[in-house]
Specification:
Helix content is about 35%, strand content about 5%. With about 325 residues, the protein is mostly helical. The strands form 5 sheets. A two-stranded parallel ribbon has the order 1-6.
Amino acid sequence: MIGVGRSNLLLCVFAVLAGAHLSYAHEHNEPQSELQPQKCSKLLTRKEWRTLTHSEKAEWVGAVKVRPSSSPSHVHCIADVEQCLASIRHERLSLTEDQTVLEGKRSLYDDFSYSHASMERSSHRTAYFLPWHRWFLHLFDASLRQSCGYSGPTPYWDWSRDHADLFNSPVFEDSAEYGLGGTGDCGSSPEADCVITTGAFAPSTGNFELAWPIPHRLRRNLTLITGWYAHERPQNSTLGPHFVRNSTQQTTGDFFSFQYAMTLMHNHVHNFVGGDLAGDCPKALPKEDCRDMGISFTPNEPLFWLHHAQLDRLWSEVRQLSTSLCSALV
């Protein structure tokens, strides 16, 4: 169901994601010797989630989901909203050689999740992990701005500020307008699948339905101990300021030691949030399909983007501290 050939069409997926956002600094027929590095026309601001105003949070949430054309308090009908990433739906070709049209429609938001899953093996557990995710984050941010008119800062979640009490982090606010919501309902009934019940992405606040690996609602299961590993340490054991400081300041000149520390922090946040961010398959998906791509649709979770923006921010800080790390992978 999930394991299908995809190499050629995957290039097309990335071309579509990138094509609307990237412009050439020169004509195609310009001699190579005359090419000049493209300069940024405007530097974008990156801000920690808790420092955003309610309206800034609502604007980002709306760009991911459905952005009101007026202030949220004045939205009265569907005509008052503009479609954004999770609302812009389209037909898709299958990634098989016959390239048939799949039944139903997926959203532009789903495209990012699918692309991430398709690149699982080449962009994770390799030296490309940090630079690939920087590019991926850039494409997503550019899509918010170009497809949805988002003009606010790029948000990140500095979980080191919450490590002592992750459950009460400001990113889990329950506001239906600007909150990302809290943990899901994992135990009210045998059918409960950890679907979130609060925040702007809950089923009660609108149509935020995810396509991969099968259609489902956003799921989350906050926990410090997953029970997945022997001798497991709490997920916040690598997320405090001391560990972050050692990871960024004591690995000077050693990119792979630095990336290993970053991987620990990366994995622990994914596992703490659980559900979609942890690659936990929906209950309705057959167990034999819960592998390979089936566990790699982690960008289903909007927190994915805040988490990876934090990792990218830490990498930027390290590159400023160490010229050897900077030259290793810029």
